[in-house]
Amino acid sequence: MTVLAPQCRTRIKFCGLTREEDVDAAVAAGADALGFVLWPGSKRAIDERRLAELGVRVPAFVTRVGLFVDPSPALVARCSPHLDLLQFHGDETPEACEAAGRPWIKALRMREGLDLPAAAEAYGDARALLLDAYRPGVPGGTGDTFDWSRIPASLTKPVILAGGLTLDNVDAAIAAVGPFAVDVSGGIEAAPGIKDAARMAAFLDAVRRADERRSR
Ligand SMILES: O=C(O)c1ccccc1N[C@@H]1O[C@H](COP(=O)(O)O)[C@@H](O)[C@H]1O
Fold first, then answer.
1. What is the pTM of this model?
2. Which domain holds residue 138?
3. In 64-196, which ranges are continuous DSSP H helix?
4. 40 CA to middle of ligand 1, Å?
């Protein structure tokens, strides 16, 4: 049974970083977590050598998240020394996620008919569930949103809301869902894998403003 801590502020993860200057800007802006895509099929993919180079720039208390899509155990093992948390974004079973032996979160794509409470139960050892839009044949990073009203209020896992979040909709997303965290990739980019420092800072401001409004 997961005990959900009371919400104080919405945590923020920026995903798909590939450049030193973007890591530095994200940390300076105040991101809680930085995501590195280790799935070679992505336009934002980096390999383990780049992961080591970028990961070492991330200070303590900022979480380094490795994004995998149905990875081999060997890839996860090679990347793990440079990561604090694993994000499984494919069709990994709960057993495969747990077998990595590291803290992990599970991404669930909101395809029609997905039973979220049952999935939360099945992935009971996950530290959180990341909810992303579903587009057939694409594991994620689509920039698509989904119908946030499909998320039940009483999930037994912290929710990380993802999928097409931007400066313009993150306020409404937080008001509608009240997630533990938000995760954004395309919405803070100038081009795939190239983050925009001004958009990152503005996204953070928008989340803080949304939190203020919620606390009133
Ligand atoms: O970013 C990718 O290329 C990617 C590839 C495969 C799986 C997930 C991927 N990204 C993650 O998708 C969500 C939503 O991204 P967006 O904000 O809609 O662009 C997020 O968790 C990304 O990290």
1. 0.96
2. 11-215
3. 73-79, 94-99, 116-122, 170-177
4. 13
